[in-house]
């Protein structure tokens, strides 16, 4: 395990790559190694269906000659000099990019904290198998569950090694463990499927597999014999935390600097303006100890800080990498992420901060409405904000969840939805995108 965690050899190779690129004619360069180690086991109906194990150290070299840039990738064992010379040759014939550059030296991390992202617990394939079987068995034991779609368990680690030609060297690793199960209730055309899962940085903090299975079983039997409901306008829709997290991810997409630069965000002209209801805030913090998406520095060597992206409903920041920030006439806020050979901005530990009402009280306050547990399709236009998604869930009647509902569509515009959002107080911060249950008033529901 220690040899897998020690990144000193990889840092040395990355630094050699940069030196060779400079000798070959590059004005500046950075080299990154994306590390990955994983193993998983999947089972169905008490039998192992698959086991997987993988590990990789993927190198990327990015070189700059004036305003020209090129990137190349390779697996371990490549010829350092040949890769450096190839990258420089590609850069010489590449079109100019006025915004591509390394992060300014002044913004680079001089030191960074230990965020306790790595759990070195050794998890064997047998432990993964037993966890998968336990989750499935517990789900199948719930009365009304008729079949299994399978269960799985996984363990792994990943991280980043980065060196730049202006002196930055750093590395970190983060672990990840997970359990999941999916089961079926009902027969024939009346079958319904649901699931549950847990994912943590530390193995000991995972929910018990049997508890995950029981929750999955209880969720799916509640979905049996769904009904349709009449089409209506001005319907209050409550989003279960599982779907609420995806919705907050769409907010993140709308305030991503890359989307703003491309003019593909409906919030591109809203900086400094009200975009959420007063009192609501969205935060992003890369430095949470044991945070699910924490990182001591970004993909360019810049340490981010906690930002209130939307404060009291007012938009305060975009997610920015160096090149995106330059395009917008701004400075990076340490949100650059490596994706292959490119760097683009992204969130870290993102959260729609909770309100002060319990979810049960929020449901009671609705009277009649729709509680969404699953969304279907991709009917969101991020340029205009138009929103239309297939949905399943439960009808709310007299402030109580009553019968299951399927085959309906909910629709509105994200601009209006943001201004009508009321969050509950049940946020779970174990996810990289965290959100409580929330209600949105005034939506259109298309049913029968």
UniProtKB/TrEMBL annotation:
Residues 122-223 form the Metalloprotease TldD/E central domain. InterPro entries: Metalloprtase-TldD/E_C, Metalloprtase-TldD/E_cen_dom, Metalloprtase-TldD/E_N, PmbA, TldD/PmbA_N, TldD/PmbA_sf. It comes from the Bacteria. One of its GO terms (cellular component) is cytosol. Pfam families: PmbA_TldD_1st (PF01523), PmbA_TldD_2nd (PF19290), PmbA_TldD_3rd (PF19289). Residues 234-447 form the Metalloprotease TldD/E C-terminal domain. Residues 29-91 form the Metalloprotease TldD/E N-terminal domain. One of its GO terms (biological process) is proteolysis. GO terms for molecular function: metallopeptidase activity. Belongs to the peptidase U62 family. This is Modulator protein.
